[in-house]
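Inputs:
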Amino acid sequence: MWMKMKRLIAAGTALSVLSACVASTQPQQNALPTDGGQVSMPALDQLEPVEVNSTPELDVNYRPKVTTDEGGWWMKMDRYEESLQTHASLVRDEDLNAYVRGVLCRLAKDYCKDIRVYVVRKPGFNASMAPNGLMEVRTGLLLRVENEAQLATVLGHELAHYYKLHSIKNWRTQRNTLDAMAFLTLGTGIIGLGATIIALGGLSSYSRSNEAEADAVGLVLMDQAGYDPAEAAMLWGKVKREYAASKDADMRNSFFASHPEAQQREKTLDNHARWLKRNGPEREIAQAPLRQRLAPYLQSFLEDELAQGDFGALEVVLHDMEEAGRAPVLVAYFKGELYRKRGDEGDLEKARDSYLAAEEYAKERDVDAPSGLYRALGLISLKEGEQERARMNFEQYLQLAPDAHDAAFIRQMLEQIS
Amino acid sequence: MYKFNTIKVMSVLLLGLTVAACQTTKVHKADQGVVQLNGSKVLVMPLDVELYELSAAGANEPRADWTQQAEANIKQILDERLGTYSIQVVRSEDLAKSEELAIQEKRVIKFHEVVGNNIRYHKIAAFNNLPTKQDKFDWTLAEKAAFLRDYYDADYALFISVRDSYSSAGRAAIIAIGMVLGVGIQGGQQVGHASLVDLNDGDIEWFNFLYSSTGDLRKKETAPRVVDGLLADFPG
Amino acid sequence: MKMMKQMVAAAALALLAGCNGYALVKPEQEVKIADAFSFKTTQEWNRLKQGDSDFWTLDGIGLQLMSVKAGIKDGEKIADHEKAAVYKNGMTTLELLEMIKTDLVATDQHNIEILDSRPIKSGGYDGFIAEYRFENKDGLEYKSLVRGIVHDDKLSLMRYSGLTDYYYNRGRSDVEQMMVSMQPL
């Protein structure tokens, strides 16, 4: 996975045995980056030459023997893939799937037919790769990438995990480590043993060296496909800022602790990208096609994010979308939603300003604002004690959506106002 | 809403079954159920079987070869056992289906899994027993079963689910050392259930839960005992 | 590693359940919930009390489940999961309704529809009743009936959910009856 923090957190105490071993070699990671992800760029002559072996360690049409541990995990993941067909979270929209698949095939070339990519309706920045070629891409990731090159960054990274057999190698390492520990701890007690059983309930997270290799190979794949590898560092910078702003302290800490090179990663990616581009022609970013494809989905994807209640993280996502000039009406509206729901000091004013901005942008562009806009403005006016304004907003809402499921609630509030 | 999965249910069951007997089965039959197997058409649902190898530390590693062996063995023995009834047997996987129908069937299987997990959760471990179900067994797939009845023109559906694990050499060594130290360490185990659903009303007429720490589905010689355990008290 | 969390949750539930187990609720008997409400049921239920929470089921807690959480104060979560929304003083019934839908999205439910929703009054307090339809991750359809009431700046939530096929309807009318008739103590 590109991001593993969710799983790492969930593993929690059970994995503490393991992560302790890893973390102890790393310095404390208390200083979170707040500099907006700025990286000082080395001059061209200071570029470190990069050597990457991007050759896949498996052939096209590869299938492991059934008698191996690898064969076992392929079976398990094949079964999971079959059950995925019934999942309500599976996005079945053919256009969107074909688009993501198109980008993947541009990267994977002959291996394209060995990979099945599924778009899954889930918030958060995440994608995953199973050893059998099953790739899942979350809609939350599609929301966050700003152009096709950034999408290719993640797909290339996941593809690299597949090419380099990372899942199975990692499973073996962890299984063998825990087995050795099991013998060691047997003398001292059984408690540790219980934890390891749970920790190894499934394929475990990639190691840091796996991640670094996937980054490097991914960049080469991007480059070969004609995508600008410089977008990888841009994307990483965005993600880093988002996690630094997340309300979830566990997520933040485990992320920066498990990616101790978090600060370094952006720099490394940038150095690699510049090295790859040192003499070559211009590469493609392809912003327009991605934005065009995703436009119809943004509202539902943003609703999913809002429901997570991680307002700090969402604020960064919306800020980036705003800076990039994406969907101004929606972005302003969701900023309003975010501040209204968060309700911290000063949020009411921010919410109102955002909603009003959404209203204005909609008028300028002659498009409809989201139907909830006037209802939200009414609720804010109520909180501010502006009864008359609330009445006007609610009436406007009912006029636009007389059959709304919550019309009875609005009418009740209107009665209470008068 | 509380969501079960196999692991959850298994862990609860293990808490409930303090002593791991060699092979335990627990059969439940519907209260007013009259099963008239003879002359009927029985639909065998896709076997839900997975075999694992237990690492020294206790991690479950899926084994494709063992799973294939177990599936073949169960299938063969099942054919033999069902062959003793005068029934017509039809297998879900023998009939080609459109993608849409396949999804619809998988949802019926999911539904049965949810109901089955609830039965196991509440019926097997005493501390989770429901007072209203004390002397009652009336779980059903209701209308959800109609799809199977109509599509296969069948009267009953048989569901079989097994999760099975075997100690690796490393695990066996750990268990042996544990014994010397006086600590009991869990080795491989089998947990499974089989159920027979009346497709006319969706009622689960017979439900059998199996727990065992000794059987072996991988071998032709030992598999029949496990399958017969699963089919204990099979109605008809 | 989700599995681990679930196993711990299951073990915790099992252990807690082990303390008292499920009790039988007989029909037509006055039942008190969280020392805040009382009502009568029309059929037998199984009830499990766990700390502040109260769970009721007919056929199994994964088939249909009614849960009651009373006295949720300003700044407290409305449910026992990581992403649960937080109740705030001064929320209108409309915002409460919104919060329930958000909670369904946050718990990975899909294709959520509000089938019906209406404001209610209970003992002079404002609240709502709403019915939702959604699909879980595996694509199985569920329905949910939710009642929320705010009294003395505290939110009481009663939620009933079940598999749309058969199990939900087994308890629905009884639950709706409870929701309408339950009186603050």
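Residues 2-20 of chain C form the longest helix (19 residues). Flag for discussion at group meeting.
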